[in-house]
């Protein structure tokens, strides 16, 4: 069995964070040919569910960079490498010292999902909170309401470059944590950062799916640092032309731009769809 694995943002999705009509048609052709494919993303299920509807993503999905695997056939998660509050306390304090309110993502009893935050200050922070609140099935509230029984999947935030870089340095001193960051769509002067357990990775989650499904070969597509672990595991790995330099350097090949249906065009040629 050959498995195709897609990163979403900057890869399968266009600049509007959507699947283009051409990409949706290509996915239908893959499904009609019986070619197996799935997703490995830094997003949560709730932030990806609507995007993927109708595109035949029936195999297990990888969310939060490998922290969670979701199985569409059962609606169940398998969790690994979750965090407790005492494991992130110093990072939370680091955000506070930089004047940045972090967003803490949780899984709670009965598989409830939540996002909790400190008092919001800037318009960009309020827009981000409103975006989370608009996602169906995701509870958003102040950090004072964070349940003691909640498991933490990750911490995200946006802020000025210098402040985010200071938090990144704090994360590097914590061996059990890893951080990814990049330019924020909320403002050209802002960076986003996402922090989770260092043992969680897209590559590790794909390895689990390989064992579960009996996959013999993996072909993957990605554009950023959090895709490098799955590139290392894959038999073939492809980077769109908009990918980071380090990702393109280790790819099997560099293909078309994510906003020009680069992945869809490659797939049509690769599998003669």
What does this structure look like?
It is a single chain. With 273 residues, the protein is α/β, with parallel strands linked by helices. The chain folds into two domains: 2-79 and 200-270, HAD superfamily/HAD-like (Rossmann fold, 3-Layer(aba) Sandwich), CATH 3.40.50.1000; 85-197, Hypothetical Protein, Haloacid Dehalogenase-like Hydrolase, Chain: A, domain 2. Helix content is 34%, strand content 27%. The protein is built from ten helices and 14 strands. It has helices at 8-12, 21-32, 45-52, 85-97, 123-133, 161-172, 202-213, 228-233, 245-250, 262-270, and strands at residues 2-6, 36-39, 61-63, 68-71, 76-79, 103-108, 112-117, 138-142, 151-160, 177-183, 190-197, 217-221, 236-240, 253-255. The chain has a six-stranded mixed sheet, with helices on both faces. The protein has a five-stranded parallel sheet with strand order 2-1-12-13-14. Helix 8 (228-233) links the parallel strand 12 (217-221) and strand 13. It is globular and about 55 Å long. 41% of the residues are buried.
Keywords:
six-stranded mixed β-sheet, globular, 2 domains, alpha/beta, single chain, 273 residues, five-stranded parallel β-sheet, Hypothetical Protein, Haloacid Dehalogenase-like Hydrolase, Chain: A, domain 2, 10 helices, 34% helix, Rossmann fold
Which topology of the largest domain does CATH recognise?
A: Rossmann fold
Sheet/helix structural class: alpha/beta
Give me the number of helical elements.
10
CATH architecture of the largest domain: 3-Layer(aba) Sandwich
Whole-angstrom Rg: 18 Å
Largest sheet: 6 strands, mixed
CATH superfamily of the largest domain: HAD superfamily/HAD-like
Report the sheet-strand fraction.
25-35%
The CATH class of the largest domain turns out to be Alpha Beta
